[in-house]
Amino acid sequence: MKKSIRRILITGMSGLIGGIMHRALEGKYELVALNRRPVPGVRCYQADISDLSAIRPAFEGVDVVLHLAAVAHGGAPWEEVLRHNVIGTYYVFEAAREAGVQRVVFASSGAVIMGYEADLPYKKLVEGPDNPLPEEWPLLTHASPFRPHGLYGCSKIWGEALGRYYCDRYGLSVICVRIGAVLPGDKPTAPRHFSVWCSHRDVAQLLEKCLIAPSELRYDIFYAVSNNRRNYRDLTHAREVLGYIPQDSADVFVY
Amino acid sequence: MKKSIRRILITGMSGLIGGIMHRALEGKYELVALNRRPVPGVRCYQADISDLSAIRPAFEGVDVVLHLAAVAHGGAPWEEVLRHNVIGTYYVFEAAREAGVQRVVFASSGAVIMGYEADLPYKKLVEGPDNPLPEEWPLLTHASPFRPHGLYGCSKIWGEALGRYYCDRYGLSVICVRIGAVLPGDKPTAPRHFSVWCSHRDVAQLLEKCLIAPSELRYDIFYAVSNNRRNYRDLTHAREVLGYIPQDSADVFVY
Questions:
Q1: Does B52 touch chain A (CB under 8 A)?
Q2: A152 an active-site residue?
Q3: What ipTM was estimated for this complex?
């Protein structure tokens, strides 16, 4: 797909990951933003993704969409999850389909499987580096049954399901990335981050690889975390399909 | 759980499966209906599941909820799927939690994996009994990755995800049943029904077994289809966990 990609639309560019991707991609592609607030330094369509007719113009002439806009915390209230993540994500897929976009890269979340952290051995892993490692732990893969954290996690499963449907029904390529803990200070700040932390440059590497992956990739799901010793999310699939090689590790930090 | 079950609330009792369950369960349990239209012969709370405050009274004193109410076809438009299946199902779980209900049996659908029918070998299977069987086909299990048909299928994945979350977070027991083609005439009427047909008494058997399964069963997913030769959905899990033994088969019908 690389050769034919010119214009990338990023929803939610004013967020943390949006800013990281803005800096990582600018100068290499023609970037366009779809955002409620204006975004300095980029052509920005100001609209709310819960309004389909308002967001349509942003998708014209777009090759690939990176859909980041969402309420992004596990404790988000129902009304916000419904409006932005459930309805808004449907409208983003719908507008992408209408405009003939080639691919949507959907920012899913580790929250779709974070429920496993309540049980052993994952419970031990996320207690942080002051605690012994379990003897072994099965990695969760992109095919593991979901166990969502919060309505937020449920809404990300909804987005992955919509993506699968838009791929099968309309031929839209959809790649879901279950992003770990990407943090403002770009380092772990809580015990479980030593399992699920993802550095700015690692998330940027993985998301860019998804944006430009060959068009033969029709639908897939990847985890985005750094190379952390206490990690429990499979990275083999991202390495084999996309060539993702994390550059960072939570292990170098002292908590 | 059997001993302690007295009152069962059925949402959508005026639908086809609602009527089947009404007849199958009356006299054995205290039945209550939550329905937009009145339901003859049963205590009925008339309300729309997209209105949380209106449905709350129906859940008082209820032991188990059988949640059938939904728009129930693959081609349902977005507004209806959103209102009834996405928002309504959330409110049913929320009202059940608030009222201290023990279990919700959620009518999911084979539509969550029906996307597989576009590809071999499933494509061959659903072409009906006039066509040769594939040499072999892997059964889809409750742990197979989803491939939804329509927004309807996506909404059922949403319901299964919510159920998993309500189980993990609030201790509500949730059993999801991916119901096949339950038909008004109780016999196959299209080629694919010879794969996915589920007779009235088979769906009644499986749903009742879910309602009364031991309280140790916290969250699970089962397929409801009859014993059809062209079936591609695993029934071993339902047999092992619930003792489900289908009594009917599409194979006895001539198409």
A1: no
A2: yes
A3: 0.97
